[in-house]
Amino acid sequence: MATISYTRISAKYRLLIIIYILIPLSTALPISEFYPYGSAHDKTLEQGDDLSIEVLLTVPVKFFGETYETIYVNTNGLLSFIYDVPYFSNVEFPLEYPVIAPLYSNVDTTGKGKVYYRETNDSALLQRATQNVLNLYPNLPNGYEARSLFIATWDHVGYFEAGTDKVNTFQTVISTDGYESFVELLYADGGIQWMQAINHHGIPEARAQAGIVAQGGKFYTLRGSGTDQVINLDKWTNADRPGMFIFRIGNINDTGNVEAPPNAYGQYNEVNGEPKTCFVGATNCHSNAECIEEPEGYCCRCQPSYFGNGRTCLEREVARRIFGKLKLFVQEEPLEDLDFHGYIVTKDGKIYIAVNNLPESLGYKIQLLFTLDSFVGWLFGSPKGDAKNGYMLTGGVVNHTADITFDDYYRVSIKQRYSGLNLFDHIKMEGEVYGTLPDIPKDVVVQMPDFKELYTRTGPGEFRSSQKYEIQLGNGQTHRMNVDQTFNFIEYCKAAEKDMISMRMDSVKNYINYDRDQSILRFASFNKIFKGTENTDDPCIEGRRHCVANSSCLVEGDGFRCVCNSGFRQLNNNLYPNSQTDFGCADINECIDGTNACHPDALCVNEIGSYNCQCKPGYVGDGKHCQYFQENQIPPNAICQVPGDYSTCSCKFGYEMVGDTNEAGFSCNDIDECTTSYVCPEEADCINVPGNFTCRCREGYEGDPNNYCYPTNPCRSTICPENTVCENRDGRAQCICAPGTYGTPPNCIGQDVNQCQDDSECGQNGQCYLSNNRYQCGCLYGYKKNPQGQCELEEDPRNVCSNCDENALCVQHYGQYDCICNEGFEGDGFECTRKVLGCDTIGGCSQFADCIYSSSVSTYVCYCREGYKGNGTYCEQITTCYEEPELCSPDASCTYLNDKYVCECNDGFFGNGTICREAKKLDEEYLLLNKGRTILKVPFNPTRTNRGRPIHIYENQTAIGIAIDCVEGRVYWSDITNLQVKSSKYDGTDFQIFMDSGIKSAEGLAIDWVNREVYWTDSGYDKIVAVNLDTKDIRTVASENLINPRGIAVNPYKGKVYWSDWNREDPKIEWANLDGSERQIIVKGPYVKLPNSLAIDWSTEELCWADAGTKTIECLNVEANRPRTIIKNCSYPYGLAITDDTYYWTDWNTLKLESSPKNNPSVVKSIDLPLGGYDKLYGVVAVTSCP
């Protein structure tokens, strides 16, 4: 809890606090004032973790206009409708199902605490609930009289796993008359002692959340939900009693939300602005901060082992992460939703920044924007002395603007918005970059030396900086760079920040690198923060006294300049006093010059350095939004059940209510559905229209924008030069040399076309000569071609001889010097290797070998005969398990197979016969599927009490491919956000990162449980990869002629691997031996268009795939080459899994898991999924015994 410090309080303020204490105020809610509960009154939920029970109600509850006759009570601090939510979901609100969550957290009552519940019609309790409603909602059109109460109490409950040292106590009471419903949320005095649990992996889970969620995602959260301040719910209220909240939840239309009491404000609600003393404001302080009284108002100060602005405090020794999105609009090449990641070692100010998915065309240029890194350095640099870094001033909530010029020509603007910590203690950001940048040659490194930045406080919550740099490139080129930065934030503690006149950041060991293979831009630096007064070289130490009133001194290189503060403008070019033309900085009258944001029906009142807006008489609003008020007038897009009674008004579909209905000061504002990321397909833009929205395929895409958009073939509008053809490469047209020609576009030459016929066609000092059966132009002896293709005199034509291989001679050849390999060597003269003499010439084969020509080495080679092994020169007889049975594993048998004796694992064991492993026994069979950040366990036949659960939820991952190791009982999945392949046991325990290098976009996964390898398709590198499960040795199976490999399957018994290529121009499915040899296309043409996942039906040994182009599930008998359509009329199938009796697939459009029985595939059934976010469904796998 935040504590109050009186060490610096004057007598005046101490007297004020004593007066506050003596005034009879409402106190926090003691448990004795809860609605009665306990074993004498209630039923008790079984003690443990993740438990719930369904309760049949005698009087139905109205919730967001729907009527519910049952309710679920959950251990984890919530009540749910429709579905049971039996497990804790580590996600941010809203959840997917309708819930009332007084305090949603990972509760575990194994060690301590109980959950009580009951429905009651006790007259005294009904009267209490009724009176609460009538007192707080006096204008209900039909009055209210409760007929039933549902009471649920979480009494001294502990946290996962069996934690008992801290406990929480709270209660939820739903009152209903069958037609209208209200909910009371009650928090005992000091009743919230813990906010988050620690999961199986030792990682803190989401902080406790409090709120109400309707079906469809609409939700309302209480103040402090998901933050450290949630611990203060017992001190806040909307019902005039600390620890008590009440909401109308019943007859609410589709566009409305829960309604708080219209006129009741809690004494701890800050309705009259920021509180001035710790008596009221201490609850705004972090639990690891103290509240200190100051003459200018209270301040929150973090404890010594923490740092921050007091409202948020972070542990000094704990590293932090930044997650966000970056938009680039640089030189007409817009890129949106680039992943921005930061890792901060707070102890020493070490910063690591990465921007993912940057194409090569922009990646090298963006290296120049090291300001993206230096801003984080300002935020988290290691403070020295009594200096403060940016986080200690802002709490991580800050807007940053940087205006940058390069070489006085190129200009770029960076705007970043940091919104502080989320409920996982990660810092959220979003940024935009606009403008132009100079070109940086490919593979050229930007070298950033150590530098210093000086920042000047130019007003409350505002710092500015102006710096000049000279950027050195690895190729010796330099760029001049001017950077003007502004930092804006809310300055809560004026007393503490006013001495921070200026600050300095020293940044050293700067690292900038663009990795074109992984399309990642990386920054790194060490940063320290000093007070500007500690820098004797600060020109503003002297310069401030030269600046006029209402201006600030800004360091500029080795000098300074004066700039007018916000709200003021410069009247002439001279801001220095004692000048004959000194008019200084004058207040901007925003009301006259039209720069104000007041509504046309508002009065603008100018203030020094600012302005204020006030709605005119007869209008209501905040001054920036004013509406004409006339009695009985219904605002546009509103519907009122009782004319003239605004408390009965609601907004039409597509609009939301803003303001207070009881004073008619409300409006129905259009809902921008486009702020919800999942309303349109990924390749479509959402366009908001009044009351609705529409989807439109982005430029370069076409299709049905409400369902899917696919890339337009750019070759349709591209005309290529002669001897070239157009090829669609990742949505871009590229002209390449046509078959039968060679060269580099646009200069492609036919193999049978001569470049010249005589010397006259080759220009001055040129000659026409025969080479490779065609005539082409070259230079005469002593001349060489310059970059323009002209022949110019060489200084010394014999310089070429210095590059000859040591096993070559330099000879004059056709008027020029050439390197020729010596006898017995071969090569181009610059590199010569000894000719390999075959065994047909020198002999040397073993008596148990044959001399056979090998095309791979173009000579004759010795090969050991069948039954022998060796290098051909030496061959020894192969010993089989028939001669030596101990060659086999104890769990294998020596079997005569394919004309030889081999070790074969016994039933129930798997391996190569030498090593056999027993497969893990399964207690049950089910499905595992990927849903973006979540991996779900789903029963084959879910029930209301067993709908499955997540085994993993990671906020920052996108899980795509999935496969199981049926021998070891582990699941593997690919994460394309973090470029990793991860693994855990089937139940989610023993989580591991299996591979985190050499991956760009792993989409499909398959496991060879016999030979112990995992295969995946990498659409970033366009290759098929195999990795040993035990040693992690990696090898490439295929890497040529792949455009967008996606699905993959493996049959270890046949030694085959299959994969699909999701190439719209030429889709296909291929197979190869496990080592990549004997690669062939097995499906093309009408049976395959957009093949996603592959799966093997082990009961028929068919290869099957989900095709989003044909919208079908197809299967193929590979040996017989007989394809067949299994299921038609799918919407957009993606993942595919097959059991002995059922096909299962995920669908991107329906966002459902679909299934169909093998004996009647025309019947399609959707399977309800457990709670787990709003992401798309990707890969799915059946967890069964090894085939």
Automatic annotation (TrEMBL):
PROSITE patterns: ASX_HYDROXYL (PS00010), EGF_2 (PS01186), EGF_3 (PS50026), EGF_CA (PS01187), LDLRB (PS51120), NIDO (PS51220), NIDOGEN_G2 (PS50993). Disulfide bonds join C845-C862. Residues 587-627, 670-710, 711-749, 752-792, 797-831, 835-876 form the EGF-like domain. GO terms for biological process: cell-matrix adhesion. GO terms for molecular function: calcium ion binding. It comes from the Eukaryota. Its main location: secreted. GO terms for cellular component: basement membrane. Residues 102-252 form the NIDO domain. Signal peptide: none annotated. LDL-receptor class B repeats lie at residues 969-1011, 1012-1054, 1055-1100. PANTHER family: PA14 DOMAIN-CONTAINING PROTEIN, UROMODULIN-LIKE. This is Uncharacterized protein. It comes from Rhynocoris fuscipes. The lineage of its organism: Eukaryota, Metazoa, Ecdysozoa, Arthropoda, Hexapoda.
